[in-house]
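Hi both,

Apologies for the delay on this - the queue was longer than expected. I finally got the coenzyme A-bound model through. Below you'll find the protein sequence and the ligand SMILES exactly as submitted, and right after that the structure tokens for the full complex including the ligand.
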Amino acid sequence: MNDWLRQTATQHAQQNLTRTYVAVDDGEPARLLGYYALAATRLLFAGISERRAGQDVSAVLLTRLAVDRHVVRQGLGGYLLRHALHVVRDASLRTDVQCVLANATSSSAADFYQHFGFEALATDRRRLILPMRSMDAVCQHVRGFEPI
Ligand SMILES: CC(C)(COP(=O)(O)OP(=O)(O)OC[C@H]1O[C@@H](n2cnc3c(N)ncnc32)[C@H](O)[C@@H]1OP(=O)(O)O)[C@@H](O)C(=O)NCCC(=O)NCCS
């Protein structure tokens, strides 16, 4: 987790490729607990829906989302995902964003996204989408988090 942040996140931010958000321990701000990164992308719908076939749509790519192994299953991953979706929803009020695309690094990660309503692409089960219309349901009930 730290390696990617040290080596890549700053470089990507400087080149406007991704934006990375981190969660740190309040009592120990140097301690990184988790992070996620977002990038703009476009998605070609080929045969997923007849109406959309062949069209490309604007999306936000959730390139990474991870929590420190010492704090897994304590709510942070869900919190970070909801935070990311609030950021995307905010962006969608200003520019064209039609869905969120997540890259899952494992089948367990894909299960995590599906738990929140993401749907796997028929062409690649490790890539999952959440349409903007499904966003509100996921964004509700964020513990200790004020919507942006
Ligand atoms: C996947 C990951 C981000 C989950 O983070 P977490 O902090 O353990 O998740 P939370 O405790 O916030 O769980 C939130 C909800 O997701 C569910 N959940 C967590 N991990 C899950 C999984 N692998 N499969 C299905 N559901 C999962 C929890 O049961 C919980 O459900 P609830 O809200 O109904 O109670 C974390 O395990 C991780 O960093 N894994 C390694 C990296 C990774 O796989 N990242 C995914 C993107 S590539």
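Main takeaway for now: The pocket of coenzyme A is lined by residues 64-67, 72-78, 104-106, 108-109, 111-112, 115 (CB under 6 Å).

I'll put the files on the shared drive as well.

H.
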